[in-house]
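Schema walk-through. Below, the input block comes first and the output block second. Nothing else is stored per chain. Lengths vary across the set, and this one has 121 residues.
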Amino acid sequence: MAEPANQNILLRENSGCQIVTSEEQKQVCQENILLLEAIMLKNPVYCQQLPHYQDNCLTNIAQKTVDLDLCQKLSQVNAQDYCHDLIIFKQAVKGKDKSLCEQLIIPSQKNDCLNTIKLNK
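--- output ---
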């Protein structure tokens, strides 16, 4: 079985990006494929190779793996807060746990969380 890095290269080579004539568009195509691979494989190491999509990549993987530590690696504080709140919000609603709503950073999210749990009972 191929290593993830080798799978990564194989998927990009077979992605159709090679038919794109513009080097800039070819780069965008390859970055989009790598982004999808990183999310699919839940591998944040690939995100480091995506300077334009790094925060998007990390946020998606953090959500899929419920890893709040990945949120702290985002480049901007508001993005870190948003990532954190997405994960906590989903956990609170799924578990119908109002106490988790109190851990939310963004004030409007706390009310939304409590209301969502209330409506879903």
